[in-house]
Design brief:
The structure holds two protein chains of two kinds. Chain A is mostly helical. Chain A is built from 16 helices and no strands. Chain B has one domain.
Chain lengths: 386, 212
Amino acid sequence: MSIEIRSAPHIKGTRSVEQIMRHVVWSLLPVCAFFVFQYGLSALLSLLVVTVSCLLTERFFVRQGGQSGDIGDFSAIITGLLLALSLPPGFPLWMGAVAGIVAIALGKALFGGIGFNVFNPALIGRAFVQAAFPQAIATYTPSFMPGRFYEFIPSSMTIPLMQPVSVVEWLQARQFDALAGATPLAKWKFEGVLANADDLLTSLSGHMAVGPSPVLILVCGAYLAFRRFLDWRIPAAILGSAGLTAWMLFALNDVRFPNPFFMLFSGGLILGAVYMATDMATSPVTPKGMWVYGALIGLLTVIIRYYSGLPEGVMYAILIANAATPLIEKITQPTPFGKGVLSNLGRQKKGASYPLHSGYISREDAGAVTPKKRFLFNKPKHPPKE
Amino acid sequence: MNQTSAQTWDEFMEGIWRQNPLFVMVLGLCPALAVTVSAVNALSMGLATTFVLTCSCVLVSLLRKLIPKEVRIATYIVIIATFVTVVDYLIQAISLALYDALGAFIQLIVVNCIILGRAEAHASKNPLLPTLINALGMSAGFTLGLLALGSVREILGAGAFFGVALFGPDFQPWVVMVLPPGGFFVLGAWLLIFAAIARRKQKKLAEITQNA
């Protein structure tokens, strides 16, 4: 009989990366379908173009850079779909393609491919186009336009490198004013108009330019969380912290600040909380760390929405929290069994304490002698010259 | 081509390719990121640096036996600062608009580490001719680097090249390209391309030696 000796982990799950990613894509399909139902052909084409540009970029870099993974693992599809869902439906297609290329090239391939990225690739792509084309990304068109399945939103079909075609006349021809396309958040920020709950949740009653439906995203996210494809702690922490912060501010001054319900269900907070912040490579793995990470995102989102010039802050909040992830993981390391404060009570501490380092732990546990930390008091200040 | 001229050519090309100050040594990033918003700015910055670098390296090389070792850095700085003052007034006299566009970065050529580095590492140890060749090569490399940055940023950020509109009035400018992040993006992209080329060359070289 042979005994195999090796280090942890000893229990291995049967799930592969490809399987997890495929499930996330499936769960995104209803969200995408409703998005297309809201905005028609333009949204469909936007989803396709962004995803295809992500896939092509991924294929190029995997071939060129010899990185692991390929387009078969579905991760680039997730990036593309999320990116397209976070962009306005009438976003010029060439800009969408640029966003997709930047997302994969800058956000993922340069860091070493799948699993090595520090930031969520979809958000990197969106942040780039937000910085490059601030006007176009703020131009939303109303949802449920008549005839949306037969014609494109004119700005979609912009010639590459050219300015987006104006949608003002197109809207006027359909008896909409130019402001009908503002998002609920922009409406609140710049005009002080609060949207109704049913508008925010489904947008079925009016033409408000809400993004993908929050209710549908929550349902699909609940499925993923139930199947353990994402950790429920992160969305819970984000929504909890954003809701709590918004509620406290609302309690302080209910004229200036909107109610917490509006804060939670407007803009991209739900999409960000459920699908973007839970990206496995860029969120903490420690349970405590997930709460800290989520709380940070929620707090930052509300702060950016209330106190900055931008109407929406989810993207930057998640990117900042992604950058903080390694630090959060470091300070929230779980205590190994038998190493807690209580277990040390009444027990004499032997030897020096060492940082949480696998080499030291296993030797101590095996009862081996660890080298003592020694201080040389009589050490000469200046080493003798040779 | 005899051997000396081949060597000279090699020395000149070193600054442009193998030891390119911007893309290989990654020096002089302050002007490279700050003033390369347009190709004109980049080119004039490059030419100003070329003048200062060449003149001060020549002077340092001529004076190399007279400069006491203990105060050499201070001496180099004085020499460089003299030429920077000349360039400063020169640009001001030629074009005030350009002077305003380049701003403090003309005066900051004094602290450009390419110049001090060349003076310390090359000019102070070599006679006039090699110093001149090396300085010219380095400044050509730096100017080309700045131009590479400036062209991309101007084409994407303003749809123009040396002020000539390329795409007509409907061009959508990439706002980020004329902002500081654009400088980092473009510099990073060029560094990436250079690194990829260098790696490919190394691979080929390794293959050749393996086969031989």
